Amino acid sequence: MNNVVILNSVRFIVLLLAQVIICNNINFLGYINPYIYIIFIFLFPIKDDRLAFLLASFLLGMLVDMFSDSGGVHAAASVCLAYARPILLKTSFGMLYEHQTIKFGNTEIGSLITYITFGTLIHHFILFTLEIFNMANILLILQKTLFSSIFTIILSVLIIILFSRNKK
């Protein structure tokens, strides 16, 4: 098997287990939870098959839903994030994405944070909108999106820096 396939399979399993064992049990201030499983979607190789990527994102979200008993909201938010990813990559990395030369371990930290921030906000907004599913509670949706996004962005950037950056 290819090293990239093995790396992504291990990343998929580790992030799924970390999400369901550790992060799902964090309930800071009653409504702030990190959702670090989306790191898999952020770091999936750019040149790989788009259909396989969308299916892997759906499977990851569906497995989180199964362990969280959340009825499909993670699967929907994950697929939406995976679908929006090319736009996020082009916005954050510009010509690096155009030439398909992005290596997340070598990118500028500002571009990486921009990419993760926009992606996390999109994912969390869709997730909490579907979870609450009542526009009368738009302030609660925005509050949960903002605070959970901040927590997720900080953890995601730290994890990516610790495990993906090249050691110099």
TrEMBL record:
The chain crosses the membrane at residues 12-44, 109-133, 145-163. The keyword Membrane applies. This is Rod shape-determining protein MreD. Belongs to the MreD family. It is found in: Cell membrane. The keyword Transmembrane applies. Keywords: Cell membrane, Cell shape, Membrane, Transmembrane, Transmembrane helix. GO terms for cellular component: plasma membrane. One of its GO terms (biological process) is regulation of cell shape. It is a multi-pass membrane protein. It comes from Winogradskyella flava.
